[in-house]
Automatic annotation (TrEMBL):
Domain of life: Bacteria
Source organism per UniProt: Streptomyces mangrovisoli
InterPro entries: Lysozyme-like_dom_sf (IPR023346)
Protein name: Transglycosylase SLT domain-containing protein
Keywords in alphabetical order: Signal
Signal peptide location: 1-37
Length: 138
C-alpha cells in the first residue's frame, strides 16, 4: 500500500496524528521506547558520577576496571545466563534497591550500592579489583 506524502505540516501534533493514522491504515503499529531507556544514565555520565563519588584515583581506577569488565558502564546491562544486572552486575539486581528505589536506571544508586558492597566484602574497590584479577568475578 502506498501512502501519499504530506506536503505541508500545520503542527507537529498534526503530523504525528497523521503518521499514526497512516501507519494504522497500513497495518503498522507505532510504539514508544521503554520509559527506563530515557532515564538511564549514559556510560560517560556514569563515569563522571563515579569519579565524584570516589575521589581517590587508585580506588576510582579499581572500581572503573571492575565496572568496565562487568558491564561496560551500561546501567541496564543484564547477564542473560545469570540475571546479574547493572553497572556492578548485582545478583539479583534487586539487591540494589537497598541503595535507592531507582536502582534499575540510576548510575548513582548502582555506584553507591557497588561501593558499599566492595567496601564491606573486600575492604575497598582496589581489594575487590585484586580479587577480580585472580578469579574474573568478585
Amino acid at each position: 500500500m502506498l501512502i501519499s506524502r504530506i506536503r505541508r505540516i500545520a503542527s507537529p501534533k498534526k503530523a504525528l496524528a497523521t503518521t499514526a493514522v497512516a501507519a494504522a491504515a497500513a497495518g503498522l503499529a507505532l510504539t514508544a521506547a521503554p520509559a527506563q531507556a530515557a532515564s538511564a544514565d549514559s556510560a560517560s555520565q556514569a563515569q563522571a558520577i563515579a569519579h565524584q563519588m570516589i575521589p581517590d584515583a587508585a580506588q576510582y581506577n579499581a572500581f572503573s576496571n571492575i565496572v568496565s569488565h562487568e558491564s561496560g558502564w551500561n546501567v541496564t546491562a543484564t547477564n542473560s545466563s545469570s540475571g546479574a544486572y547493572g553497572l556492578v552486575q548485582a545478583l539479583p539486581g534487586s539487591k540494589m534497591a537497598s541503595a535507592g528505589g531507582n536502582w534499575q536506571t540510576s548510575a548513582k544508586t548502582q555506584i553507591k550500592w557497588g561501593l558499599d558492597y566492595m567496601n564491606s566484602r573486600y575492604g575497598s574497590p582496589a581489594a575487590a579489583w585484586s580479587f577480580w584479577q585472580t578469579h574474573h568475578w568478585y
